[in-house]
Amino acid sequence: MRNRGPGKWREWRWAGITLPLLPPEKPSPDVPPDPALAKPLTEIAYETISKLTAINCQAKLTECMVEFAKEPDSPGGRFSELRLRELFRETAAANLTKEEVLEIFPLPEAPSRTGSRKPSKARAKSKEPAPDG
Q1: Could you tell me which of 7, 55, 73, 91 has the fewest CB atoms within 10 Å of its CB?
Q2: How far apart are CA 101 and CA 117, in angstroms?
Q3: pTM of the entire structure?
Q4: How many CB atoms lie within 10 A of CB 91?
Q5: Nearest CA to 23 among 111, 87, 82?
Q6: How far apart are CA 62 and CA 41, in angstroms?
């Protein structure tokens, strides 16, 4: 447990592999949120590992993680969370079906075109027919 300090150290651990992560960047308010970050890293990791374990491909993920650990993003030896997410995506795409990959990494939703405007009201028909003339 941390008793003091800023708490800017994050790690991801699995199967004896420890990857120190860079602190997440705060998004600017004028930029829309990235749909790839909708799911937390732990959920993506769990789903990917579970599906790869079910088809006996966990060793391939371990090999990819060992290779990934050799190339840190910063001089301090930390890794970007986005790169780790991409590693999971690439490993899943290489070993799982397209449907399983889409379950883990859903495509971003297209923006809906529903606006605040209401459709115009339908015009009521006259009860009496118009005079000919």
Answers
A1: 7
A2: 37
A3: 0.71
A4: 21
A5: 82
A6: 17
Give the separation between CA 93 and CA 76, rounded to whole angstroms: 30
- Angle in degrees, 0-180, between the axes of helices 81-95 and 41-54, rounded to the nearest 10: 20
CB atoms within 10 A of CB 48: 23
Q: Which residues pair with 12 in a beta bridge?
A: 19
Beta strands in 1-133 (DSSP E): 10-14, 17-21
For 77-92, the DSSP string reads: S-B-HHHHHHHHHHHH
* Best mean pLDDT range from 53-57, 115-119, 120-124: 53-57
CA–CA separation, 74 vs 44, rounded Å? Answer: 23
CA distance 24 to 109: 23
How distant is the alpha carbon of residue 15 from its chain centre?
Answer: 22
pLDDT for 49-96, tens place per residue? 999 999 998 889 899 999 998 988 888 888 988 889 999 999 999 998
In 3D, which of 53, 36, 45 has the Cα closest to residue 11? 45
